[in-house]
Specification:
This is Hydrolase. Its EC number is 3.5.-.-. By secondary structure, the chain is α/β, with parallel strands linked by helices. It has one domain: Nitrilase/N-carbamoyl-D-aminoacid amidohydrolase. Helix content is 27%, strand content 28%. A 6-stranded mixed sheet has the order 5-4-3-2-1-16. The protein has a 6-stranded mixed sheet with strand order 8-9-10-11-14-15, covered by helices on one side. Strand 1, helix 1 and strand 2 form a beta-alpha-beta unit. Helix 1 packs parallel to helix 3. The two termini are 21 Å apart. The protein binds N-(4-carboxy-4-oxobutanoyl)-L-cysteinylglycine (KGT).
Length: 292
């Protein structure tokens, strides 16, 4: 276990544009603001580089990871500001047919520490007609990712992943103290579920949760929920944004992880049940005891 330390985490809340250039300009300006306020770790939201109108426009502007100008600029910025910079995600070219929704953790020398491809695709029809088919354009990832920061271990996830608690449990069991959920939540589902889901993930795991959000009415007419959050391991919200772009910071005291886990050691109390279906008879008892 790392020593207990404190550092400043900042959530950069954005209203990403249609195109990469103005989005990058917005991101750079807000990240500089966060660093000026003393942030050591800065996170931006899901799809920090662009929110496009349709598949055709998206694919016209996609670059591969090797060629992406935003990633190069953000790496240089992290080195200049000497911060850990977590670009919540960039839409990048994966293949001729597919994009990938990829998160990047950049170290203070501009080095790439880790990247993560969003696992769970938002294929959803909301009441009222709003409809999403993320899997039509994006290749999902298959691997959860952790990385070590100077202050403790961090787990990487994106947005809709937050609805799959087993992923967060697995990251916490792999030693994470910080869980990250950069997002572009819809306004409707955000109003209904955002705070509850993020607080639950923090409480269940005894981790800090860092979630930078997209906010407001975008050029592509999508409306995102905003309310970037930092939640401590007891489930308390210690920083929160509104619906405007901006920077939201909190001091992170990693001793809070140990305190929360000592008080409620649910992470050590693993799954201890099978599932009985009395109608089907005893041979249909699914034995899952012992797994997480
Ligand atoms: O496609 C883009 O431009 C950016 N990506 C997104 O907005 C993604 C996939 S469509 N949004 C979500 O996952 C929202 C999840 C959500 O709102 C919920 O779980 O309720």
């Amino acid at each position: 276990m790392a020593e207990h330390t404190t550092f400043t985490a900042a959530m950069v809340q954005m209203r990403t544009s249609l195109l990469p250039e103005p989005s990058l300009e917005q991101g750079m300006r807000l990240i500089r603001e966060a660093a000026a306020q003393g942030a050591n770790y800065v996170q931006t939201p899901e799809v920090s580089n662009m929110m496009q109108l349709n598949r055709k426009a998206l694919f016209e502007h996609l670059a591969s990871e090797e060629d992406d100008k935003s990633l190069q600029a953000y790496r240089a910025l992290a080195a200049e500001l000497k911060i850990h910079l977590h670009i919540g995600s960039l839409a990048l070219r994966y293949s001729p047919e597919k994009a990938v929704n990829r998160s990047f953790l950049i170290g203070p020398e501009g080095n790439l520490l880790a990247s993560y491809d969003k696992i769970h695709m938002f294929d959803i029809d909301l009441p009222g007609g709003e409809s999403y088919r993320e899997s039509a354009n994006y290749q999902p990832g298959e691997t959860a990712v952790i990385s070590d920061l100077p202050w403790g271990r961090i787990g990487l996830t994106i947005c809709y992943d937050v609805r799959f608690p087993a992923l967060y449990r697995a990251l916490a069991e792999a030693g994470a103290w910080f869980l990250t959920v950069p997002s572009a939540f819809t306004r409707k589902t955000g109003e209904a579920h955002w705070h509850t889901l993020l607080r639950a993930r923090a409480i269940e795991t005894g981790c800090f949760v860092f979630a930078a959000a997209q906010a407001g009415l975008h050029e592509n007419k999508r409306e995102t929920f905003g309310h970037s959050l930092i939640v401590d391991p007891w489930g308390e919200i210690i920083a929160e944004g509104g619906v405007e772009p901006g920077v939201f910071l909190a001091e992170i005291d990693t001793a809070k992880v140990e305190t929360a886990r000592k008080t409620i050691p649910s992470l050590q109390h693993g799954r201890r049940f099978g599932i009985a279906d009395p109608k089907a008879g005893p041979e249909h008892l699914h034995l899952v005891r012992g797994s997480a």
